[in-house]
Amino acid sequence: MEIRSTTEQDRDVFVDTLLAAFARFPEPPAEDGGGTWWSALEMDRGLLAVTADGRPVGTAAAYSFELTLPGGVVVPTSGVSAVGVLPTHRRRGVLSAMMRHQLAELRARGEFLSVLLASEATIYRRFGYGPATHTQRLTVQRHRAAPALPRAATAAQDPGSVELLRRADCGPVMEEVYDRYRRAQPGALSRPHRWWALGAGQSPTARTPRHVAVHRDADGVPDGYASYSLDPPDTLVVDETVTTDDVASATLARFVLEHDLVARVVFQHCPPDHPLRWQLADLRAGQLGDDKDWLWVRLLDVPRALTTRGWFADGELVLDVDDPFQGERGRHLLTVRGGEAACVPTDREPDLSLDVSDLGSVYLGGTTPSTLVRAGHIRAHHPGAAARADALFRAERPPHCLHWF
């Protein structure tokens, strides 16, 4: 078996192989070649697993994104996707061979982080990826959606306005607003212009018809949007609400909650700290559900990753990090002073021993080291080590990722 890089000429073979791996059939492409999820594939970053007689049996791809780290640091990262192996060749080492080949390529590109969305939660930890962000669905019964008395940043205090547009008419506005949002939100990924231009991915980047409520500030500048559609007969589904302003967020939520002839409103992707339930007079009117892992993170260069993100507490921590898939192990002294970190090899006794996948889970601040200590994933070598790690790894706000890839 050979693992080889792909070119644009391999697109059809790549897509056909991947779809067959998941027992799916292709969607008809748009006239301009866009409108399908695979239209955004970067074929110079794809891999094909090919048998000795030339048959493709496996695929893997990577997108070029930027990831926002704690502290507002924006770094390049590879979004691993389109990973599949034909049912005839599973459990023969094809997937492991592709993942090992891909990690070597990412390192050769000088990257120190990789991310993915896992189709199954049991697959990617063995390759060093750990779940780093979570998302949840919030369902609000409209007849119980009366707002709480305004006491802080609420829609009632909003000096801005909301304009209702169609998805086809406001792509550039949404792209601009999303770009501002993702630079301020830890865990958020960029959406390259070609995704918007091609209509790739899922709504609202896809060209599927959507209504879009665009929020403008007091000066008329767009600073938020909510993309939504009606799920017959009476459910309004909000794909995503994007803004960096709490008042704008409250206004957009109130806009969709006051929609006529709707029994319930479903907010598809809510961060763990979403304030909407607290903005309702009836706290129980908002029901959380479908809490799931979203972005998985893989550190390719531990010292570089740890010294690049922002930090919000001073301290020292010795981390003994095992990377069994790569056959590597390193002990690192992490020192943080005034928000700046240094990370160097050390022979000091470790404070924590952990797998590189667990380091990926805590890296963005969405999972505390103490949680993984209690779960038996991380070993704390002395009392107080987990609490010190919690203080160091916290972020300014919980990480969240909206982008599907």
TrEMBL record:
<dbReference type="InterPro" id="IPR041380">
    <property type="entry name" value="Acetyltransf_17"/>
</dbReference>
<dbReference type="InterPro" id="IPR025559">
    <property type="entry name" value="Eis_dom"/>
</dbReference>
<dbReference type="Pfam" id="PF13527">
    <property type="entry name" value="Acetyltransf_9"/>
</dbReference>
<feature type="active site" description="Proton donor">
    <location>
        <position position="124"/>
    </location>
</feature>
<protein>
    <submittedName>
        <fullName>Acetyltransferase</fullName>
    </submittedName>
</protein>
<dbReference type="InterPro" id="IPR016181">
    <property type="entry name" value="Acyl_CoA_acyltransferase"/>
</dbReference>
<dbReference type="InterPro" id="IPR022902">
    <property type="entry name" value="NAcTrfase_Eis"/>
</dbReference>
<feature type="binding site">
    <location>
        <begin position="83"/>
        <end position="85"/>
    </location>
    <ligand>
        <name>acetyl-CoA</name>
    </ligand>
</feature>
<feature type="domain" description="N-acetyltransferase">
    <location>
        <begin position="1"/>
        <end position="156"/>
    </location>
</feature>
<dbReference type="InterPro" id="IPR000182">
    <property type="entry name" value="GNAT_dom"/>
</dbReference>
<dbReference type="InterPro" id="IPR051554">
    <property type="entry name" value="Acetyltransferase_Eis"/>
</dbReference>
<comment type="subunit">
    <text>Homohexamer; trimer of dimers.</text>
</comment>
<dbReference type="Pfam" id="PF17668">
    <property type="entry name" value="Acetyltransf_17"/>
</dbReference>
<dbReference type="InterPro" id="IPR036527">
    <property type="entry name" value="SCP2_sterol-bd_dom_sf"/>
</dbReference>
<keyword id="KW-0012">Acyltransferase</keyword>
<comment type="similarity">
    <text>Belongs to the acetyltransferase Eis family.</text>
</comment>
<feature type="binding site">
    <location>
        <begin position="119"/>
        <end position="120"/>
    </location>
    <ligand>
        <name>acetyl-CoA</name>
    </ligand>
</feature>
<dbReference type="Pfam" id="PF13530">
    <property type="entry name" value="SCP2_2"/>
</dbReference>
<keyword id="KW-0808">Transferase</keyword>
<feature type="binding site">
    <location>
        <begin position="91"/>
        <end position="96"/>
    </location>
    <ligand>
        <name>acetyl-CoA</name>
    </ligand>
</feature>
<feature type="active site" description="Proton acceptor; via carboxylate">
    <location>
        <position position="405"/>
    </location>
</feature>
